[in-house]
Amino acid sequence: MKISLERRGSVKSWHLIGVPLLSVIFGILVGGLFLEATGYNAILIFKTMSQTSYTTLYGIGDTLAAATPLIFTALAALVAFRVNLYSIGAEGQLFVGGIFASGVGIAVGTSSSALAIPAVLIAGIVGGMAWMTLPALFRAWFGTSEIITTLMFNFVALFLMRYLIYGSSTYWRDPTSTNFPQGKKIDQNAWLPRFGTQSIHWGLVLALVATVGIWFLLRKTRFGYEMKVLGDAPNAARYSGVPVKRMTFTVLIISGGLAGLAGASEVAGRAHALDPNGLAIGLGYAGIIVATLARLNPFGAVIIAIGFGGLQNSASALQSLGTESVPSAIATTLQGLILLLALAGELFVRYRLKVSKRVEVSA
Amino acid sequence: MTQESVLILTLAGAIGTGTPLVFAAIGGVISERAGIINLGMEGMMLIGAVTTFLVVNKTGSPLLGFIAGGIAGALLALIHATLAISLRANQIVCGLALTIFGTGLASFIGKPIEGANLEKSFNKLKIPFLSDIPAVGPVLFKQDGLVYFSWFVALLASLYLNRTRTGLSLRAVGENPATADAMGLSVVRMRYAHVILGGLLTRYKGS
């Protein structure tokens, strides 16, 4: 018997939905076996996770709030990935977006909301774009690997943020908190209003608007068409006169702006201050994974981000299970496991396994 | 304490702290030379560290721990290799997913031993004569065995990549897979071997 891979003649629509669904189910099964093997009650854990994240109104609210920044960072990643620019800098751009947004928020907070909220959001976008400028310039004109530069900028941004709050008495730090350093709260006028439950804020609406906007940009504009050509056939793009360097720069800057907006939305909608503990670590990296699993489709990214947000959100509930308390790291482990299996499963969208009997050649 | 001795202590400390990075970086170089970028290194290092820690406290042997940590890193690298090479997944995304998985798994396994101390670690080895050289001696030649081992590995990796037949084939595989394939080299096999070798090196001494 010989097992080989064969490219599918045509990709049917049920493959596009069915394969990832099977991957996720498989991931949950493997995770369950792992939990049982290490002596935990898998059924109870999965029940708690789904209750905290997907089945109660309160839980769905938390899940959507957790998904909001992921939608932004996923959009940031997919715009760049579409033209084969593997920027992994959304993480750092999110932090810098947060720094800019909170800075402006503290400054303009006392003016009316109609003025303060747009100012904060624009500051976030500018921050993200600014942080992407150097890597984008280097990539477009000097051909420096954007993977390396954006990755290194992430660490600079992270430590810059920590320095602003922990390491110094800057403008961002709350002077009244003496025991534990905290970010200064931005004025209530600059907060993104909440609606529905206690946790959903207008950042979610903004994220959905951005999703439609990016879809429009990619599908309905000349710029989007040129991006597609550049992504699928770089040489064809070059010969047909697409300004490759300028395109590269612009696409990366758009990506940075989206990631910065994620930071602004987290600051104005959730944390209300520049707070290294409040801004979750890893949103930028998670966005890349969301974008890939969504096959770089903006609407797909929204759906995957919601699923992913739920997984993240359920972690805290696991620790308060009483006697059955489970380290919250299990949520991260499951996340990683499902991701790996989903990535592995992707192959079967395009290829199928072909099992053939070995043909004996007789003389 | 004189100013000079502060400087020397800092430098000696820097070399100790930098050693895990030496291993990780060599692992990264080898994998990258095979044409596979490894962003899952963080996960591999953490899993390696937890494994080393558990094994050392169980067996009391730092050497066994070191080896076990390497094997754990290599196992994770095997996952990376399978996904990135056989299943043709995006290397960057796959690496990031491995980092998430590794971080989660490491803190899950490590939860019961949080805050515990490593019972036994490698002893400091003073190299006779050389360690008596003022300034340079205490910085370079009063480190634990792993530090010297890391230098040895770096030298070995450099010789391997530049002076041996397989090392040169490896670079061919990384730089121009199509040509390497035409030369009759198995791109897949080479990549597998070296991503795993990279993972083996990309491990961390949890001390």
Strands of chain B, total number? 0
Terminal CA distance of chain B: 27 Å
SSE run of chain A: EHHHHHHHHHHHHHE
Question: Which CATH class of chain B applies here?
Answer: Mainly Alpha
Largest sheet of chain B: none
Radius of gyration of chain A: 22 Å
User: What overall geometry of chain A do the principal axes of the alpha carbons give?
Assistant: globular
Q: Globular, elongated, flat, extended or rod-shaped: what is the shape of chain B?
A: globular
Please provide the ordered H/E string of secondary-structure elements of chain B.
Answer: HHHHHHHHH
Characterise the protein shown here.
- The complex is a heterodimer of chains A (363) and B (207).
- Chain A has 13 helices and two strands.
- Chain A is mainly α.
- In chain A, helix 4 runs antiparallel to helix 5 and helix 4 packs parallel to helix 6.
- The longest helix of chain A has 30 residues.
- Chain A starts with a strand and ends in a 7-residue tail after the last strand.
- Chain B has a single domain, classed as ABC transporter involved in vitamin B12 uptake, BtuC, CATH 1.10.3470.10.
- Helix content of chain B is 73%, strand content 0%.
- The C terminus of chain B is likely disordered.
- The chains are: A mainly alpha (363), B mainly alpha (207).
- Chains A and B meet through helix 11 and helix 13 of A and helix 3 and helix 4 of B.
